[in-house]
Amino acid sequence: MPPEGRITRFAPSPTGPLHLGHAYAALIAAQRAGAGQFLLRIEDIDQSRCRADYEAQIYDDLRWLGLTWPMPVMRQSTRAPAYRAALARLAGLGVLYPCACSRADIRAALSAPQESAPVHGPDGLVYPGTCRARPMAQAQPDDALRLNLRAALARVPALSFHEAGPLHAPLQPLNPDWMLEHVGDVVLSRRDMGTSYHLSVVVDDAAQGISEVTRGDDLFEASFIHILLQALLELPQPSYYHHKLIRDSEGKRLAKRDDARAIAQFRSDGATPQDIRLMLGL
Ligand code: GLU
Q1: How far is the CA of 198 from the centre of ligand 1 (A)?
Q2: Is the pTM for the entire model greater than 0.85?
């Protein structure tokens, strides 16, 4: 670790109560910060699913766990101008196109007889490219904007990232053929939000000066999209630390709706922060 420590973040979406998996993610991020800084970011771009009471509970649960962070916290709902600027830059590079396809359109295109078996990528079915030839000049207000992955990969030389976590090799080269098959043209601006998870996280990690992104291994593939976006937008590349996911006794991933594992529930049952750390193996 550099003597000054790392800058890490915990970036929850206030769409449900924090559960054990979130506690693990937050505690790992704080631990990896060392003598550096642990930041909090509220990922509330999906205003239809975010709730103020969940956000208040996040602060309360994290403080109870013993975490502290500088104020004010970054909230993605206030960052629209930064996302618009990044999209304009990507449009200028010729790597965006407008897309009007619904999920049903995508499923229908992928079930056409000439198509090979649909592939599931980090965001669901890999997009079949129906709208890829549409120019940005024809974008309609309620279109989504997608990354033209082939065009994007052609613009940046061989990319890789440094993985600091225990689950993967330290050097992670980006394989363009694998990306084209398994990731495809991801959405960078959703029609109802003017941004997407991938775009916001890249723009905000850079704005917050994050030097190491710690996140669950379910987002490992998303990290490849993010290093590509960092290269296109000429943003510094952080290192990555993907950690294991906390699972329930049947081995299933914990979900936000799994209220039985909510930190608030453990608290009201009389657990201490130390009990939570022990349960998580920390
Ligand atoms: N907001 C994301 C989540 O709730 C995590 C952020 C990230 O690491 O990219 O899972």
Answers
A1: 10
A2: yes
User: Which atom from ligand 1 is nearest to the alpha carbon of 226?
Assistant: 9
Domain at 175, CATH number:
3.40.50.620
Is 273 within a domain?
A: yes
pLDDT at 260 (0 to 100): 65
Sort residue 184 into left (φ over 0), alpha (ψ -120 to 50) or beta: left
Same domain, 123 and 256: no
For the chain, give the mean pLDDT: 94
Number of domains present in the structure of the chain: 2
Residues whose beta carbon lies within 6 Å of some atom of ligand 1: 11-13, 43, 201, 215, 219
**113 C-alpha to center of ligand 1: Å?**
37
> Is there a domain that residue 241 lies in?
no
Residue 10 burial by Cβ neighbours in a 10 Å radius (0-12, 13-18, 19+): buried
Tens digit of pLDDT for each residue in 29-79? 999 999 999 999 999 999 999 999 999 999 999 999 999 999 999 999 999
Residues 87 and 211 grouped into a single domain: yes
> Given phi > 0 = left and psi -120 to 50 = alpha, else beta, which region is 161?
beta
State the residue range of the domain holding 261: 1-77+247-282
Strand arrangement, sheet containing 96-99? 96-99, 144-147, 187-189
Q: Is residue 278 part of a domain?
A: yes
Distance between CA 124 and CA 212 in Å, rounded? 26
